[in-house]
């Protein structure tokens, strides 16, 4: 895990203080050496997750240039649609340098209020109508749930805190399973070519 914005570092501090087992390694890097650092880490690890934050930065662009999969979380709100459009433009620009990267758009922090479900549907329609190359709207949706805040505050992952019948657990597992399918599909297409 590379974490230029330091949110994972805060999570690890909480986890360490609570004496929970470490499930992954994390480091914080900023500046122009990030691409080289990622290339070095690829020799040691099968999977590297980079959390660049939601802003356009040199760290984000360096990560996008070497990424296999890019996950763009977006919130179903008018303000976030403008941010999403900017991220789509950036991913499109990066695709010239990294044509094999697959960008997945994940609807995140959606309201579970049944009266607001149309916001999610409207965003799904908006994204699907864009007909974007190398970008795919994920079918899974992460809803705003108190369990996420509770898990973070306790230094736990959502699957450590919740049982399988809870909605936050179910939302996350659907996302995780869908992501694994995308990774497997990419691996298979690389083996074919």
Overview of the structural elements:
The chain has 193 residues and is of the alpha/beta class. The protein has a single domain (7-192), classed as 3-Layer(aba) Sandwich (Rossmann fold). Helix content is 51%, strand content 12%. It has 8 helices and 3 strands; from the N terminus they run H-H-H-E-H-E-H-E-H-H-H. A 3-stranded parallel β-sheet has the order 1-2-3, sandwiched between helices. It is globular and about 40 Å long. The two termini are 29 Å apart. The mean pLDDT is 90. Residues 23-95 form the AAA domain. This is Chromosome partitioning protein ParA. It comes from Helicobacter bilis. InterPro entries: AAA_dom, DNA_Partitioning_ATPase, P-loop_NTPase.
Secondary-structure map with pairings?
Elements: H1 7-17, H2 34-42, H3 58-66, E1 69-74, H4 78-94, E2 102-110, H5 117-129, E3 135-143, H6 146-154, H7 158-161, H8 167-192
Parallel strand pairs: 1-2, 2-3
What is the helix/strand order?
HHHEHEHEHHH
Largest sheet: 3 strands, parallel
Fraction of residues in H or I helices? 40-55%
Number of domains: 1
Q: Count the beta strands.
A: 3
Please report which band the strand proportion falls in: under 5%, 5-15%, 15-25%, 25-35%, 35-45% or over 45%: 5-15%
- For the CA atoms, what is the radius of gyration? 17 Å
CATH architecture: 3-Layer(aba) Sandwich
State the end-to-end distance.
29 Å
Characterize the overall form. globular
**CATH fold-level topology:** Rossmann fold
CATH homologous superfamily, by name? Answer: P-loop containing nucleotide triphosphate hydrolases
**Count of DSSP-assigned helices:** 8
């Amino acid at each position: 895990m590379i974490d230029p914005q330091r949110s994972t570092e805060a999570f690890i501090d909480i986890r360490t203080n609570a004496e929970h087992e470490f499930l992954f390694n994390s480091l914080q890097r900023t500046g122009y050496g990030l691409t080289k650092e990622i290339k070095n880490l690829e020799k040691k690890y099968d999977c590297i997750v980079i959390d660049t934050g939601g802003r356009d930065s040199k760290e984000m662009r360096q990560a996008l240039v070497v990424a296999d999969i890019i996950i763009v979380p977006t919130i179903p709100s008018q303000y976030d649609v403008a941010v999403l459009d900017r991220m789509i433009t950036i991913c499109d620009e990066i695709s010239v340098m990294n044509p094999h990267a697959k960008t997945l758009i994940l609807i995140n922090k959606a309201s579970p209020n049944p009266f607001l479900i149309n916001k999610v549907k409207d965003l799904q329609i908006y994204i699907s109508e864009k007909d974007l190359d190398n970008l795919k709207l994920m079918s899974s949706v992460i809803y705003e749930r108190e369990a996420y805040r509770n898990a973070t505050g306790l230094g736990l992952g959502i699957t450590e805190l919740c049982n399988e019948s809870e909605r936050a657990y179910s939302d996350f597992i659907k996302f995780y399973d869908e992501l694994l399918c995308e990774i497997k599909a990419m691996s298979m297409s690389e083996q074919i070519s």
